[in-house]
Amino acid sequence: MAGPLLSIRDLKVEFATRNGPVTALDGISLDLMPGETLGVVGESGCGKSITALAAMGLIPDPPGRVAGGSILFDGEDITHADAARLRSLRGTEISMIFQEPMTSLNPVFTAGDQIAEAIMLHQKAGRAEAGRMAVELLRTVGIPEPERRARSYPHELSGGMRQRVMIAMAISCRPRVLIADEPTTALDVTVQAQIFDLMRDIQQEFGVAIMLISHDMGAIAEMADQVSVMYAGRVVETGSADAILDDPLHPYTRALIGCIPVLGKAAGLEGRMPPLAEIPGIVPPLHLLGRGCAFADRCLLAFDRCRAERPVLEGRPHRVACFAAEMEAA
Amino acid sequence: MSLVQPAAAPEAISPLREAWIVYRRNRPAMFGTLLLAVIVAFVLYGTFLYAGDPYEIVWAPQTPPGTEASVPLGTDYLGRDMLRGLLKGGGPTLSVGAAAAIITLLIGVSLGGIAGYFGGWLDDLLMRVTEFFQVLPALLFAMVVITLFSPSPITTAIAIGVVLWPQTARLTRAEFLKIRELEYVTAARSIGARNGRIMWRVILPNALPPLIVSATLTVGVAVLFQAGLSFLGLDDPNTMSWGLMIGTNRQYVLDAWWPVTLPGVAIFLTVFAVSLVGDGLNDAFNPKLRER
To answer: How many helices (H) and strands (E) does chain B have?
Structure first.
């Protein structure tokens, strides 16, 4: 099997703040295989979006900065690539779709124009030809009446359609990696399912590798081949989707899975719904992290060692960074 | 053909078109537009209908308007035809105003855009420069610029533009600062757009509404400025303008009111019309006011 297409190695990202530098990503490692889907899951503020921006070379600098580690795209370290090389990678090799399709499309241009612009950035195509290609792309992403919709402005489209336009723009130059940062969070559940279907179709048709970032374990379960669970700027557990969903080792992963609501017959066996699980507390402010495990303060299994020492990822291929899980396994 | 007809969706309406629809319903703004159109038409075509040299002495000095058929608006202190002066002098007044507004926009938008987009030390530097120009007394500074070069409509336009651009620069900077953080700018970057493209093709079109309003109002200010400068005798005396008419006749205002008042009214009406248009554009582009 070929090596990973996008490989993040021990990446550290710092942000300058009034309280001094804050480590937003603290040595994370992720591997995205060609044609596969990697789910990156975690709560708000755990560094998922920063990971996505880092992979695009789009960390706002200043205040942010890549403080260590590397991001290898097809073997090439893009943390040291110059601006021109990054620009030529963006769109053609790595593309991104965003959480809020209302704000990620330019309100003053039509959907077709925006896609055509993206095409003309990287391909030798005249305006008319790019326009035709844009209509074709709109058809590919399942927009009815693409000729007419190409002339619509973003505010005239529904949320789901806007996200389809966004996807059309992202795949316009056949990238090999598609980073989807919470692509369905702002959408209805039914539309969410449609967008996931579309992403799967596109993956099959174009062979694109998808890095799906979400806080929703349910979405990850539906889409991902591999899963990495992030917490407070660190990867706490990583493995195949089946392994993580069926046999979660980290208390945080277990808690996240416990937060998926159970519906239908399975829920009603005892006559009433089980209460929905919650994880007490929030992700701690990054500048207040101690030496130990970042999750220790919210963890039911935490013991002394968890607060004094930082666990590292152990095991293979299903890796977890937790002392309690380690003891359980032993 | 499919069985289910899609609901007749409204035809695509561009944001500019939508603004025009709102603008058309705005009565003061339409009145201002009409008034401005009439003034411009008079200035453009009036000299063809009522030809003649505005410097030529044609009748007895200080003939009141309406007393002599050959000089319907009377004469000034030298006996020159007021109507010829008003028609001939409108051109330089309006074109200097418009040119000054364009110069203001060019300097202000490029400097403000660069400052707002790139931020950091470049922003600091450009903003200090802007403040330097802002704290200079405007009229005095314009006078200095004009006296340094020979007075002509072009010098006047440049002088006014150089004095008025800081406001536009600050407005542009604020808009760029706000818009560059929006997700569609990140999205544009994520498909590989370069800085220049993001600044002028992504951010600028979204920053246009307040800039259009500001430019319109700048035309009004520039017309006043131009009048003020020619009143002070700093404009080219060989180019007839409304300000020049007021300036040359001001000593005799107690003997004859019309040589000063008529160009004053012309200036007032022009600035008034331009302000109404500017306010109308503001309402049309400001989504919060649209709902009223």
So the answer is: 12, 0
In DSSP terms, which residues pair with A227 in a beta bridge? A39, A239
Task: Give the pTM.
Answer: 0.79
Nearest to B14 among A96, A122, A153 (CB): A153
What are the tens digits of pLDDT across the range A258-311?
777 766 655 555 556 666 777 777 777 777 777 788 887 788 777 888 887 888
Enumerate the domain spans of chain B. Answer: 79-291
**Which pLDDT belongs to residue B1?**
42
According to DSSP H, which parts of chain A are helical? 48-56, 83-89, 111-122, 127-140, 146-149, 159-170, 189-206, 217-223, 241-246, 251-258, 304-308, 323-329
Residue pair B87/B46 in contact by the 8 Å Cβ criterion: yes
Q: CB-based contacts of B257: which residues, under 8 Å, 6+ apart?
A: none
> Pairing mode, if any, of strands A177-181 and A226-231?
unpaired
Judging contacts by C-beta atoms under 8 Å, the chain B residues touching residue A110 are: 12, 14
Pairing of strands A209-214, A177-181: parallel
Q: Of B222, B218, B284, B246, which is closest to residue B22 (Cα–Cα)?
A: B284
**Domain spanning B79-291 has what CATH number?**
1.10.3720.10
In this structure, are residues A239 and A74 in contact, taking their beta carbons and an 8 Å threshold?
no
Distance CA A43, CA A30 (A): 17
Contacts of B290 in chain A (CB under 8 A): none
Query: Which residues fall within 8 angstroms of residue A195, CB to CB, at 6 or more apart?
Result: A160, A163, A164, A167, A183, A184, A187
DSSP bridge pairs for A97: A180
Judging contacts by C-beta atoms under 8 Å, the chain B residues touching residue A145 are 6
- What is the model's pLDDT at position B8? 45
**For chain B (length 292 residues), average pLDDT per consecutive 10?**
46 72 86 92 83 79 78 81 85 88 93 91 93 87 85 86 92 92 88 87 87 85 84 80 84 84 89 88 66 42
Strand partners, A314: A320
Picking from B6, B10, B14, the nearest residue to A145 by CB comes out as: B6
Which H/E stretch holds residue A239? strand A234-240
Give the integer Cα–Cα distance in Å for B179 and B211: 14
- With residues binned 3-state (H G I as helix, E B as strand, rest as coil), the percentages for chain B, rounded to 5, are 75, 0, 25
- Helix, strand, coil percentages for chain A (3-state, nearest 5): 35, 20, 40
Q: What is the pLDDT of residue A135?
A: 92
Q: Do B191 and A172 touch (CB under 8 A)?
A: yes
Terminal CA-CA length for chain A? 31
Asked whether the beta carbons of residue A108 and residue B184 sit closer than 8 angstroms, the reply is no
